[in-house]
Amino acid sequence: xxxxxxxxxxxxxxxxxxxxxxxxxxxxxxxxxxxxxxxxxxxxxxxxxxxxxxxxxxxxxxxxxxxxxxxxxxxxxxxxxxxxxxxxxxxxxxxxxxxxxxxxxxxxxxxxxxxxxxxxxxxxxxxxxxxxxxxxxxxxxxxxxxxxxxxxxxxxxxxxxxxxxxxxxxxxxxxxxxxxxxxxxxxxxxxxxxxxxxxxxxxxxxxxxxxxxxxxxxxxxxxxxxxxxxxxxxxxxxxxxxxxxxxxxxxxxxxxxxxxxxxxxxxxxxxxxxxxxxxxxxxxxxxxxxxxxxxxxxxxxxxxxxxxxxxxxxxxx
Length: 317
What we know:
By secondary structure, this protein is α+β, with helices and mostly antiparallel strands. It is built from ten helices and nine strands.
């Protein structure tokens, strides 16, 4: 079976990519609120998977993942993943009153965060909407104390969320299960986008860097290494799209494909990031070059929403 983006989906990806190429700055440590509002108002990235009944665009999770891959390619901080996970958790577990009250705000661009147990919360200190889920239920958290948690890649912003007023709004286990699947495929998409950026950077550099009177990209050994990077990238993208489509359509094998995608895409990015550093040479270990951003992002995404070995263990169950 051939699986490819539709013309409309390709246009969505190109539009997000173009805007981020013009406006995104991968070197800032927190998201650009103006850029986020532009993404929400002009493209509707936060509203893509939210039904029209809740003021959303009425598309699907898969369209949101397409946008998320482009966010990963830009390397810029962006609260799309945390807001996407939260909106999907609400759709899966919240009561109707909570959906009507919270989802339109997320669709308009209010940053949202989802609390899963005691783990650090993605964008927890930036969120205007915070919901938490456990076996006891789904709750909205207000007036909580949030504390930023320093990380190697500070563009993947984590925080602790403690205290506050907790109001019951629905089914915790249903919201939790959905959030974990969406978090896994969302992180896989970010990894694919980052890997694409890394490969593009490497190919471009090897065309410009001259050694022994010729561009180093003309050396056969380096061609082979970049070809291997491309193969890994395309396999990761296939895994990401298959899992995202399955989770979007709630296919029977959605959980298994999500675990496969998170594991494979994380490790593919780790290898591609390592090759990016190696093939750039000494310049790649300086703060002035973006290769260090790719390396740090690979480390952060490897652990976000579960490390590869944890997902492989779940596949084996």
